[in-house]
Design goal:
Oligomer: single chain
Keywords: ATP-binding, Lipoprotein, Nucleotide-binding, Transport
Strand content: 25-35%
Order of helices and strands: EEEHEEHEHHHEHEHEE
Helix content: 25-40%
Distance between the termini: 21 Å
Radius of gyration: 18 Å
GO molecular function, one term: ATP binding
Largest sheet: 6 strands, mixed
Structural class: alpha/beta
Bound molecules: adenosine-5'-diphosphate
Family: Belongs to the ABC transporter superfamily.
Protein name: Lipoprotein-releasing system ATP-binding protein LolD
Strand order of the largest sheet: 6-7-8-3-9-10
Pfam families: ABC_tran
Number of strands: 10
Length: about 220
């Protein structure tokens, strides 16, 4: 069974001038442990597709299934729980909380789930696993390099042990060498931990880490390689 399935998904933005079809009748299956890159020109629908995969947005037509559950059938609370427990999010701009140090950034989603008993040891384990040196755990984001910040963000995305990681241009703010190190980390999470990784990128070199490329143009899937 796929971990994620789109069946006939369209997204239409009603604008006063004319409707914009951001996604047009998309059907796809994502299987456990896959590493997928989504590529396409600016405005082709990549962000809309990733938002839909992240259950941040609901289809205008069709339905999205996460591990067999129709997102249309879920209440807002159930969707929030599903997003928290099944999905991890990694962004180009890292999106860390500036006033919290690295460890507390990773702990934050665990506090939202478990309250103030949220384990610091678990955060330390995950920070070690993503290769952030203990000397940096009490540094705030502005005291860390871009690559270090992305490691913290990846640790945060893993804290509730999601099956699927959704990555929006994860190397977009990093130099080539640092970007490769981050991609190697994502590859290891896929290979060793069985994480399913779905990544939007416009960079062909970054897309080479993926096992499958979904190309999108004008809201249509062009080809899968
Ligand atoms: P990409 O990420 O590939 O650049 P997007 O998914 O952001 O593409 O956008 C796809 C299309 O949908 C574009 O034409 C864009 O202008 C339009 N669009 C995206 N978000 C909205 C929105 N919130 N309201 C109206 N139109 C939108
Ligand atoms: P990205 O760089 O991730 O592709 P975009 O620049 O496409 O981001 O979009 C940034 C935000 O603006 C998104 O949340 C998208 O939904 C929204 N957006 C994009 N196009 C439009 C539009 N034509 N009208 C309203 N919102 C839009």
């Amino acid at each position: 069974e796929p971990v994620m399935e789109f069946i006939g998904v369209s997204k239409i933005y009603p604008l006063s001038s004319e409707n914009v079809t951001a996604l047009s009748d998309i059907s796809l299956k994502v299987f456990s442990g896959e590493f997928i890159a989504i590529m396409g020109p600016s405005g082709s629908g990549k962000s809309t597709l990733l938002n839909m995969m992240g259950c941040l947005d609901v289809p205008s037509k069709g339905d999205v299934y996460i591990r067999g559950r129709s997102i249309k059938s879920l209440s807002d609370d159930q969707l929030t729980t599903l997003r928290r427990d099944e999905l991890g999010f990694i962004f180009q701009q890292f999106n860390l909380i500036p006033l919290l140090n690295a460890l507390e950034n990773v702990r934050y989603p665990l506090i939202l789930k478990n309250g103030m008993t949220a384990s610091r040891e678990r955060c330390q384990e995950i920070l070690s696993a993503v290769g952030l040196a203990p000397a940096l755990w009490n540094h705030r984001p502005n005291q860390l390099s871009g690559g270090q910040q992305q490691r913290v963000a990846i640790a945060r995305s893993l804290i509730n042990n999601p099956a699927i990681l959704l990555c929006d241009e994860p190397t977009g703010n990093l130099d080539t060498k640092t970007g490769q190190a981050i991609m190697a980390l994502l590859e290891r999470l896929c290979h060793d931990e069985g994480k399913t990784i779905i990544m939007v990128t416009h960079d062909p070199k970054t897309a080479e880490y993926a096992h499958r490329v979904i190309r999108i143009e004008d809201g249509h899937i062009q080809e899968e390689t």
